[in-house]
Write a structure and sequence with these properties.
The complex is a heterodimer of chains A (410) and B (231).
Chain A: H1 2-12, H2 16-56, E1 59-63, H3 81-93, E2 97-111, E3 116-124, H4 126-132, E4 155-159, H5 160-166, E5 173-179, E6 185-196, E7 206-210, H6 211-217, E8 227-232, H7 238-249, E9 256-260, H8 261-264, H9 267-303, H10 305-313, H11 318-353, E10 356-360, E11 363-367, H12 373-400, H13 403-407
Parallel strand pairs in A: 3-7, 4-6
Antiparallel strand pairs in A: 1-8, 1-9, 2-3, 2-5, 2-8, 4-7, 5-6, 10-11
Helix pairs in contact in A: 1-11, 2-9, 2-11, 9-11, 9-12, 11-12
Chain B: E1 2-13, E2 20-31, E3 35-39, H1 46-53, E4 61-66, E5 69-70, H2 76-86, E6 87-90, H3 102-113, H4 118-131, H5 147-159, E7 165-169, H6 177-194, E8 197-202, H7 205-208, E9 213-218, E10 221-227
Parallel strand pairs in B: 3-8, 3-9, 6-7, 7-8
Antiparallel strand pairs in B: 1-2, 1-4, 4-5, 9-10
Classes of the chains: A alpha+beta (410), B alpha/beta (231).
């Protein structure tokens, strides 16, 4: 095998310029995949991180049917009492769960005594919410000496556009009016604790209050939890954790549903498009490798017909001739991939020295591209396999040549 | 003792619309340790005959036995193995592998065809390169040596597997007269020293004189056989 590789490499360098051009093209494809993949994966990771760390959590648990009617923010599909205790117990015992945050989500009217608007509210335990969505405090326009107390009883965090629309200032008193699950309307006065930015910019109408205030407003004797957001210890264990939690708590009669962030956020579609784009770039790479190697190997076989005749005449078996040419294509792929990976990773390293900053909604995103090792291994395997596949036809042709015809070729 | 036996061998090519008969009913026997030459004008069938005896092609009719094996019964892989074990080739255009050095060209059949151990390989290669006077050029690539030197390397490559027969199709056609004689003399020396049968085709009248057995072909027919005693 070592000798076959030696001959293959020497044959490649027989036509230096042609080999250089072809391997440059393949290396360019590899660089494209690495750099584009690095940027796209970095963008996706950042955006998913922002969404899960500031709003959604990695997973969410609801009563069955809640997600289907989520636009109405129903208050009759809740978890409480023993059922809530069981779910919390499961979460505490799960090896995958780092933190969780029970939420009551409901719609209300907000009034400054002169004007009224509507608002979507998340009532939370601030300490649990901060551990589950640690990025949330970054959206609050206020110095927070203790992020675990970003909302106190008697306070409300109001989104920027409502503040402006209702002419409110931090410290002002407002009245929240809401209807509970029995249809009873109630109102409580609260003070504006801070302004909160929406992830997606000024269009949002999402505010936060303390869960104790929600209990008062909605006349609950005990917390009737609408949603539990879950933060995992390791995000890449999402699917495993999802399946484990589902298995543990979603019995047919339990009436509980578990959803990943992907099932809840429209950004999952963008993430899928990003994945699709990476796939397209990989297909471009495959096409480049396929055409380049097929071209160079076909030329190589046609230029060396007489030589193939010679090696066949002196007793080289057809299988070995096939291997010789496959090895040549493989060596070309390997060489080009190695060069492409080195340059591609070098470019990513340079990009990390000067990260690309941009604003997405209200969030500052800093792209420091990197590519997982498994992606680099995958690219290498793809190029190697395609190189061998592309060499197959020319190599097969070489192995099938009749020595007497090949020797007579001019 | 017969090494190659042809019994009424005919070879017809079907390359165009009209079939071309390259050899017609050739019957002959070549013994071991012979130094045989086939002569004849261009198109007389010399190369076709050498290709058949070299197990590179199969007769259309008749039987051809090399070392007792009917070559018509061999498939491509078996024919390759048979050639590797029994035959050596020297070509008109030398046909050295350009990416391999002189040493590696001679090594090729031992390494990639016969898998001979390294020490044995080295011994055989250096012995043969010494015999053909190319040991001092062993690290050069074929494009750095002359035509005569290339053919001496080709002779060494043909002999390195200890074949019973070396077939050489016009081995001196691309060499000047003096070099051609040197190459033929080397082949003759190897024949005597190693007991290898040498069969070559030529149309060079002076080289022809070096052969011990001379066959003349005309239009695919064997028209004359002459046995000479060079001593």
């Amino acid at each position: 095998m070592r000798n076959l590789i030696k001959i293959a490499v020497r044959n490649l360098f027989r036509y230096k310029r042609r080999t250089l051009l072809t391997s440059s093209l393949i290396a360019f494809g590899v660089i494209l995949v690495i750099v584009f993949g690095g940027l796209a994966i970095s963008f996706k990771t950042q955006m998913v991180g922002i969404l899960t760390n500031t709003a959604l959590g990695d997973l969410q648990i609801h009563t069955k049917g809640y997600v289907e009617s989520i636009d109405n923010l129903p208050l009759n599909l809740t978890l409480s009492g023993n059922k809530l205790a069981e779910v919390e117990q499961s979460l505490k015992q799960s090896p995958y769960v780092a933190a969780y945050s029970p939420r009551i989500k409901f719609g209300a009217m907000i009034s400054n005594y002169a004007q009224t608007s509507n608002i979507r509210l998340s009532a939370v335990y601030p300490q649990m919410e901060n551990k589950t969505c640690p990025g949330l405090v970054n959206r609050i326009k206020k110095d927070l000496p203790n992020p675990d107390q970003f909302i106190r009883p008697g306070e409300i965090l109001v989104p920027d556009n409502l503040m402006k629309g209702l002419g409110l200032k931090v410290g002002d008193e407002i009245v929240l009016v809401a209807t509970n699950k029995d249809g009873s309307v109630n109102g409580i006065p609260l003070h504006i604790g801070a302004v909160i930015e929406s992830v997606l910019g000024p269009a949002g109408k999402d505010g936060f209050i303390h869960i104790d205030d929600a209990k008062t407003l909605l006349r609950m004797n005990e917390p009737e939890i609408v949603e539990i957001a879950v933060h995992l210890k390791k995000f890449d264990q999402l699917n495993t954790a999802f399946n484990e939690l589902k298995k543990g708590m979603v019995a047919p009669q339990s009436g509980i549903e578990v959803h990943t962030w992907e099932q809840l956020s429209p950004f999952a579609s963008i993430a899928r498009i990003v994945d699709l784009l990476i796939l397209v770039v990989k297909f471009i790479l495959i096409s480049i490798v396929l055409v380049s190697i097929l071209n160079i190997m076909t030329m190589s076989v046609y230029e060396r017909i007489s030589e193939i005749g010679t090696i066949a005449a002196i007793g080289t078996r057809p299988g070995r001739i096939l291997m010789m040419f496959l090895m040549e294509g493989f060596a070309m792929g390997l060489l080009s991939t190695a060069v492409g990976i080195v340059i591609g990773l070098g470019l990513l390293w340079l990009m990390n020295l000067a990260p690309i900053d941009f604003t997405f909604g209200m969030m500052q995103v800093s792209l420091a591209p990197s590519i997982p090792a498994r992606e680099v291994v995958l690219i290498t395997i793809i190029v190697m396999l395609v190189s061998i596949f592309a060499s197959l036809q020319p190599a097969y042709k070489a192995s099938k040549m009749e020595p007497v015809d090949a020797l007579g070729h001019v | 003792m017969t090494l190659i036996r042809l019994e009424n061998v005919t070879k017809i090519y079907h390359t165009g619309e009209v079939p071309v008969t390259a050899l017609k009913g050739i019957t002959l026997e070549i013994g071991k340790q012979a130094f045989v030459s086939f002569i004849g004008p261009s198109g007389s069938g010399k190369t076709t005959l050498l290709n058949l005896m070299g197990v590179l092609d199969k007769p259309t009719e008749g039987n051809l036995l090399v070392n007792g094996v009917n070559i018509s019964s061999l498939d491509r892989a078996e024919a390759a193995t048979f050639r590797a074990n029994t035959l050596g080739f020297v070509f008109q255009n030398f046909n050295l592998i350009p990416v391999l050095t002189v040493y590696e060209n001679v090594e090729y059949p031992l390494l990639l065809v016969k898998h001979v151990p390294a020490e044995e390989r080295r011994r055989r290669i250096l012995t043969l390169l010494e015999k053909v006077g190319m040991v001092d050029q062993k690290d050069k690539y074929p494009n750095r040596i002359s035509g005569g030197q290339k053919q001496r390397v080709a002779v060494a490559r043909a002999l390195v597997t200890n074949p019973q027969v070396v077939l050489a199709d016009e081995p001196t056609a691309n060499l000047d007269h003096a070099t051609a004689f040197k190459v033929i003399n080397i082949m003759h020396e190897m024949q005597k020293e190693l007991g290898t049968t040498f069969i070559f085709s030529t149309h060079d009248a002076k080289i022809v004189g070096e052969a011990e057995i001379l066959y003349t072909l005309e239009d695919g027919v064997l028209v004359n056989q002459e046995t000479k005693n060079r001593n």
